[in-house]
């Protein structure tokens, strides 16, 4: 029932309590007239003047992550594992235990217990620590420090050791007791208190520790849980000290005897019970996302979380944004296409199984929007231990597909020839630019002694002279992947322009050596056109998607929409696009990129390709793309695109760049990427590429 104390007695209580608290924290006392004014005003203030969180507690809520259909659940995020329950669904012994443990005079005081505060002061003077806060005051503190609508600074202020904060807590507690019954306050407290091991509220705690609802808690179990709230991390028998938890349980049982809730005999029997736990894990975050041959959603989830932490809409700092994701109750509809993802995951694991040290990360992007359709790799996104000597397989949480953290990427070989072709087309060359490509080409770039040097200069060679040497133009130079043609072309245009083109299309240099070379010595980076810089399947797919979208670059995005708990849409995730290429330049590059995949350019200039199986797999649908092999077949790559989808895959050993995957795997990489493209465009209209103008042909 609501407290029956008079406003005058309540005013006296609040005033005296404020002074006592001020002494307890050893802070200079406020002037008497100011203190009197503050407490009088607070004691008489209306319930409606309380912070909204106290009138209608905005408890932290889970955020839900869905695939692009808006119904397929990927995972949930939460920092607060909580399920609110009514008092009638909480065992009476649990209610009695929490009162005995935290506030024996709960049903006697009006929100502030002067006797308890005096006892705390005496204990402090004796060198020990003892809390003077009532359950009501603790409830106020818990609500304010967990209010997801407040900033991190505001939540931290709810636990500051200051006179002002303590007086405010007392005022709020008194106001709450004017309008709420004791049972309502107790219910709120039991639903918000932290019990350790990630469990907030008694319902989550009873499931976490004993795998049962709170209505079924025994006396010994209830006493254990009630004892945890004073120091959850220290007393938790799962994550802390089990002996300390049992000692605290004994204290609670003795306290229940003191309050008359149980007898001495009942307490002794409960103390004698062994600690029997049934810990129940709570799925949470990306490691809880479905992980199988048709899913493998963990790496996409990881990419989304990394994206989220960069969005100012969710907070001023990464920490605030993380809290928003885990406590804000958002509904996130992502760009993940379950069908495309399933195909990508099956293809990745078909080339290399989960236990293979080599990997095939695959990324799929929608041109013209930047929507990331799939991120797949033959790894389990998991924190589980790996066998001895296996750093990142079969389990890892390193972002092997999109890059970031410790993952710098992989060499993608001749797929980088696209950037040379674009730079040349943009700087006055045409697709018909011809050169009699030799087997080996002496260049002006200095090189260390080795196989690829001629008189101290870098001297690249063609991989298959019989098929590649001779007079080439951009069409067949790209189709047959003629190294000496493209190195020559890059020399004519300027390697710095080629490097800048790659960056313009979204290639990020995550490796420090690459970033330094690009910044300080791009003009002399002769081998750049052969794909020696590290990249990722996502960057590569999105760069080619820019060409597919006729020069419109769209930043990759993992979300379609984000909706706040109140139903308002958060303004994030919309396509962020800008023109980075003249449309005719992009069309010309696409025309030449028809050659590698076994199709024909608009003027019939293709005469051989390195990935002709793609045309068969796509059943003649217009498609373009490029293969890539790094030196000694350390990596094998393929990236392909239609106007509706761009997909890239790079076979590599993420843990050992010196481990060559071998040229034989390239055909399987090509097939895998082509199958993903096929799934992505299935059911969509057949769209044709626009031919380039005569000026560039």
UniProtKB/TrEMBL annotation:
It catalyses: [GlcNAc-(1->4)-Mur2Ac(oyl-L-Ala-gamma-D-Glu-L-Lys-D-Ala-D-Ala)](n)-di-trans,octa-cis-undecaprenyl diphosphate + beta-D-GlcNAc-(1->4)-Mur2Ac(oyl-L-Ala-gamma-D-Glu-L-Lys-D-Ala-D-Ala)-di-trans,octa-cis-undecaprenyl diphosphate = [GlcNAc-(1->4)-Mur2Ac(oyl-L-Ala-gamma-D-Glu-L-Lys-D-Ala-D-Ala)](n+1)-di-trans,octa-cis-undecaprenyl diphosphate + di-trans,octa-cis-undecaprenyl diphosphate + H(+); Preferential cleavage: (Ac)2-L-Lys-D-Ala-|-D-Ala. Also transpeptidation of peptidyl-alanyl moieties that are N-acyl substituents of D-alanine. This is Penicillin-binding protein. Keywords: Carboxypeptidase, Glycosyltransferase, Hydrolase, Multifunctional enzyme, Protease, Transferase. The keyword Hydrolase applies. Residues 363-664 form the Penicillin-binding protein transpeptidase domain. Residues 73-256 form the Glycosyl transferase family domain.
């Amino acid at each position: 029932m609501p407290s029956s104390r008079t406003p005058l007695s309540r005013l006296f209580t609040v005033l005296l309590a404020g002074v006592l608290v001020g002494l307890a924290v050893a802070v200079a006392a406020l002037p008497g007239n100011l203190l009197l004014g503050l407490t009088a005003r607070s004691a008489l203030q209306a319930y409606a003047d309380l912070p909204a969180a106290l009138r209608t507690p905005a408890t932290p809520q889970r955020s839900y992550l869905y695939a692009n259909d808006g119904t397929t659940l990927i995972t949930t995020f939460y920092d607060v594992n909580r399920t609110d329950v009514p008092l009638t669904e909480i065992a009476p012994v649990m209610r009695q235990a929490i009162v005995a443990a935290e506030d024996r005079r709960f049903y006697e005081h009006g929100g502030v217990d002067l006797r308890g505060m005096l006892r705390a002061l005496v204990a402090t003077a004796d060198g020990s620590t003892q809390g003077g806060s009532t359950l009501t005051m603790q409830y106020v503190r818990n609500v304010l420090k967990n209010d997801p609508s407040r900033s991190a600074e505001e939540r931290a202020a709810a636990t500051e050791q200051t006179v002002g904060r303590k007086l405010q807590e007392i005022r709020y507690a008194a106001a709450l007791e004017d309008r709420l019954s004791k049972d309502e306050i107790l219910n709120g407290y039991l639903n918000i208190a932290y019990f350790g091991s990630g469990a907030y509220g008694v319902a989550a705690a009873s499931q976490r520790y004993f795998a049962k609802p709170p209505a079924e808690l025994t006396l010994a179990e209830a006493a254990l849980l009630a004892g945890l709230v004073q120091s959850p991390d220290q007393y938790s028998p799962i994550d802390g000290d089990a002996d300390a938890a049992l000692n605290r349980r004994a204290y609670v049982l003795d306290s229940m005897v003191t309050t008359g809730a149980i007898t001495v005999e009942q307490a002794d029997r409960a103390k004698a019970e062994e600690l029997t736990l049934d810990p129940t894990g709570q799925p949470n975050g990306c490691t809880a996302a479905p992980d199988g041959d048709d899913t493998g959603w963990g790496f996409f989830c990881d990419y989304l979380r990394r994206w989220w932490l960069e969005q100012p809409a969710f907070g001023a700092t990464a920490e605030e944004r993380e809290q928003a994701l885990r406590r804000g109750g958002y509904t996130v509809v992502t760009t993940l296409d379950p069908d495309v993802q399933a195909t990508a995951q099956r293809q990745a694991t078909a080339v290399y199984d989960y236990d293979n040290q080599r990997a095939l990360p695959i990324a799929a992007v929608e041109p013209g929007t930047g929507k990331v359709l799939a991120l797949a790799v033959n790894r389990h996104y998991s924190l589980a231990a790996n066998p001895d000597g296996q750093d990142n397989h079969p389990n890892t949480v390193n972002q092997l597909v999109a890059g970031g953290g410790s993952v710098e990427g992989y060499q993608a070989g001749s797929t980088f020839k696209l950037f040379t072709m674009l730079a040349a087309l943009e700087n006055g060359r045409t697709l018909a630019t011809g050169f009699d490509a030799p087997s080996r080409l002496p260049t002006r770039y200095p090189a260390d002694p080795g196989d690829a040097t001629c008189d101290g200069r870098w001297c690249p060679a063609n991989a298959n002279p019989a098929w590649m040497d001779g007079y080439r133009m951009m069409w067949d130079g790209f189709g047959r992947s003629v190294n000496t043609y493209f190195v020559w072309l890059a020399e004519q245009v300027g390697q710095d322009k080629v490097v800048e083109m790659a960056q313009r299309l979204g290639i990020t240099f995550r490796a420090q050596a690459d970033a330094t070379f690009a910044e300080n010595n791009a003009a002399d980076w002769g081998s750049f056109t052969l794909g020696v810089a590290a990249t990722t399947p996502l960057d590569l797919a999105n760069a080619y998607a820019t060409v597919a979208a006729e020069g419109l670059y769209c930043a990759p995005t993992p979300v379609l929409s984000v909706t706040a708990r109140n139903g308002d849409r958060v303004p994030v995730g919309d396509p962020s696009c800008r023109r980075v290429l003249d449309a005719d330049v992009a069309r010309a590059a696409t025309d030449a990129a028809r050659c590698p995949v076994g199709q024909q350019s608009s003027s019939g200039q293709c005469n051989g390709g390195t990935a002709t199986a793609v045309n068969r797999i796509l059943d003649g649908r217009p498609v373009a793309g490029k293969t890539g092999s790094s030196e000694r077949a350390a990596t094998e790559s393929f990236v392909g695109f239609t106007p509706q989808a761009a997909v890239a895959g790079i076979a590599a050993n993420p843990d050992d760049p010196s481990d060559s995957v071998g040229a034989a795997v390239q055909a399987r990489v090509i097939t895998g990427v082509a199958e993903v493209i096929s799934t992505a465009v299935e059911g969509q209209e057949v769209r044709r590429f626009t031919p380039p103008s005569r000026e560039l042909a």
